[in-house]
């Protein structure tokens, strides 16, 4: 048996050398950062990796970084949870990165970690989903919450004749922006669309399969359902996939926030008439220009500060340290082929 | 009297007595894990940018504390040959209870005590059903994993409680003086010493190993099998709930989905630390090294800009390799021992000691 023990120890040593070798392979990126010497170094931290929406915003961010001639790295957790994201904020603090561009998984829970990163000299720009305003330097607002809520309610009201049962298919139950939009949609429905009844809110957790199943459950539980609003790109695509193969195609209207590439087939086959969104690529692009302006000291993030954002033109920092990208955009069969994201 | 003649040759069948003491202490699975940990730390200090920074140790320990804490009772549970998959759900349940009670106006210590109490009850239910009713812990704790998580999400609904007094959230991340070591490590050290004493220096601990090696034999040698298992699940629940309180205060947020999937991180670290999934074998210092090894690896790879998927692949491979190496080496040593004429076969050992404890 002592052979076994000695051999175990040897195997572990062999294992450790394998680990060291494999770690060597990943080392190249780290060395590149030092050679730049004084260059601005930015970190992009989406809610999670492998999410097409954030892949698009990162694409815009990378394009901006290239235009600016700064280094940018994308990191992120697999699951969209605040505790997983805290580890990456901590890492940015350890690396003393010049600016961190992030979409927050929780408005409050990230604040301590962000505070420590800011103490270490890192500027923090949130986009897509904000933290509490006092935690970060700037928030790049994709559209006002009122505008987003209103455009979705308007579209669904137009499609179902301003009367009947509708339901909402959201992302995670704790998502800051989702919940804010849902509240405003409820208020908008109550104020201007008294005949539309919101019968259910379900959560697909931004998971394709779960959103698909939740759509099926909605149609089963509410036989009189006339419309579904899904203010999340994963949710609306999964719901459209379910509807396009079901008997409810054409009978149950679907709208929400989606991306043209995901929704193109469903718009063309008639499952979805019209949906809304901003351009996440422009959002990442703008956030990166804002982060660079902060990191290089051009602006301090005070209300009234102005900065140039490449092709998008000049932007002004508003109250609460936010920068508004623009109005939401309606995509339909007439214009969807003009977009590719 | 007459047995004296057979004593000398049979004693050699215990591998523990076949080697000098220094060798028995140094050439072990635990030492290998510690050596690997040291190797990874040294390598990271030299090669990974910013790993030598002052914040690394703090964040590393803060991140691994919940896993370190839960790994302590989990080690004992797995050594008895059982498993507790509901630990992360108990973390979530305790986190939500703390949040709900603090929101209702309770003080943090009172709410924390209630949350830990819920962990004792949750662990007690697991323990009762496993030890006294005799249900298989693997199946049962998959059930309670869903049950406790469901309760947690149900209690708090769609929101998160984030209004905790600063005094307590600051305490969760406070450091010992200028050392950069979080104060919560003191709590861990106390608990680690308590569990090490319990496992390695008491008759209760010897009973834990006996149950893992052969439950029936343990029963006949006077080990209170049911009581031991019941208590271990209660410990597991209580420490998981304590980890939940810490987790909540550290991130300042009580959510139903807090610590989802952490049970796998805990069990992976325990197995990496040299505990046999079949029970009967394992030491606490190996487990602590296993948890830290995974923590250091993730931290170093993250600092190096390696994506989380690649990190998971590396940790997964490490775990598979550690399991495979044990089996392959047991098989290889089986081959060599057959060729050694003087070497006595382990099968001569008393029932259970060899067949389950060493060859797995």
TrEMBL record, chain A:
It is found in: Cell envelope. Keywords: Signal. Residues 1-25 form the signal peptide. One of its GO terms (cellular component) is outer membrane-bounded periplasmic space. The keyword Signal applies. Its main location: other. This is Predicted L-rhamnose ABC transporter, substrate-binding component. It comes from uncultured Nocardioidaceae bacterium. The lineage of its organism: Bacteria, Bacillati, Actinomycetota, Actinomycetes, Propionibacteriales.
């Amino acid at each position: 048996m002592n052979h076994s023990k000695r051999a175990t120890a040897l195997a572990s040593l062999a294992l450790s050398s394998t680990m060291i070798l494999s770690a060597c392979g990943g080392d190249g990126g780290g060395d590149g950062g030092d050679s730049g010497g004084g260059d601005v170094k930015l970190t992009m931290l989406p809610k999670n990796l492998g999410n097409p929406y954030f892949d698009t915003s990162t694409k815009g961010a990378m394009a901006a970084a290239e235009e600016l001639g700064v280094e940018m790295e994308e990191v992120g957790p697999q699951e969209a949870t605040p505790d997983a994201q805290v580890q990456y904020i901590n890492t940015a603090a350890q690396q003393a990165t010049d600016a961190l561009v992030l979409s927050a998984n929780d408005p409050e829970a990230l604040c301590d970690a962000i505070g420590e990163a800011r103490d270490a000299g890192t500027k923090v720009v949130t986009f897509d989903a904000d933290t509490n305003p006092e935690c970060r330097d700037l928030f790049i607002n994709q559209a006002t919450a009122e505008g987003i809520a209103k455009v979705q309610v308007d579209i669904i009201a137009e499609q179902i004749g301003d009367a009947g049962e509708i339901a909402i298919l959201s992302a995670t139950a704790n998502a800051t922006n989702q919940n804010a939009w849902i509240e405003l949609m409820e208020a908008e429905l109550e104020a201007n669309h008294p005949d539309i009844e919101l019968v259910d809110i379900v959560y697909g957790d931004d998971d394709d399969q779960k959103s698909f199943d939740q759509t099926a459950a909605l149609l089963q539980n509410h036989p009189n359902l006339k419309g579904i609003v899904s203010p999340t790109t994963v949710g609306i695509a999964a719901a459209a996939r379910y509807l396009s193969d079901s008997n409810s195609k054409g009978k149950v209207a679907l709208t929400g926030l989606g991306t043209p590439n995901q929704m193109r087939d469903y718009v063309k086959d008639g499952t979805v008439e019209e949906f809304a969104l901003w351009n996440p690529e422009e959002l990442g692009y703008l956030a990166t220009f804002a982060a660079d302006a902060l990191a290089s000291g051009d602006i301090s993030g005070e209300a009234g500060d102005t900065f140039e954002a490449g092709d998008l033109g000049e932007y002004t920092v508003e109250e609460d340290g936010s920068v508004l990208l623009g109005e939401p955009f309606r995509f339909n069969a007439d214009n969807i082929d003009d977009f590719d994201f | 009297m007459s047995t004296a003649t057979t004593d000398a040759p049979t004693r050699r069948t215990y591998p523990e007595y076949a080697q000098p003491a220094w060798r028995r202490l140094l050439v072990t699975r635990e030492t290998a894990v510690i050596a690997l940990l040291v190797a990874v730390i040294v390598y990271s200090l030299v090669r990974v940018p910013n790993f030598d920074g002052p914040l690394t140790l703090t964040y590393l320990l803060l991140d691994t504390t919940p896993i370190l804490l839960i790994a302590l009772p989990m080690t004992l549970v797995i050594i008895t040959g059982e498993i507790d998959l509901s630990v992360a759900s108990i973390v979530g349940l305790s986190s939500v209870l703390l949040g709900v009670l603090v929101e209702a106006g309770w003080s943090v210590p009172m709410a924390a005590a209630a949350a830990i109490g819920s962990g004792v009850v949750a662990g007690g239910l697991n323990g009762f059903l496993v030890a006294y009713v005799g249900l298989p812990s693997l199946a049962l704790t998959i059930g309670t994993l869903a049950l406790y998580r469901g309760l947690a999400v149900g209690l708090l609904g769609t929101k998160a409680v984030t209004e905790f007094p600063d005094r307590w959230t600051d305490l969760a991340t406070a450091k010992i003086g200028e050392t950069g070591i979080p104060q919560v490590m003191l709590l861990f050290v106390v608990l680690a010493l308590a569990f090490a004493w319990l496992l390695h220096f008491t008759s209760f601990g010897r009973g834990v190993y006996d149950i893992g090696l052969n439950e029936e034999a343990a029963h006949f040698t006077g080990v209170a099998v049911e009581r031991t298992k019941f208590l271990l699940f209660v410990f597991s629940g209580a420490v998981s709930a304590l980890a939940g309180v810490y987790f909540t205060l550290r991130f300042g947020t009580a959510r139903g989905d807090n610590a989802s999937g952490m049970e796998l991180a805990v069990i992976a670290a325990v197995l990496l630390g040299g505990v046999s999934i079949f029970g009967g074998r394992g030491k606490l210092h190996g487990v602590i090294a296993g948890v830290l090894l995974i923590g250091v690896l993730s931290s170093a790879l993250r600092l190096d800009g390696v994506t989380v998927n690649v990190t998971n692949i590396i940790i997964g491979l490490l775990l598979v390799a550690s399991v495979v190496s044990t089996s392959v080496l047991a098989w290889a040593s089986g081959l060599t021992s057959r060729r050694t004429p003087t070497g006595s076969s382990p099968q001569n050992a008393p029932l259970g000691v060899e067949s389950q404890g060493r060859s797995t």
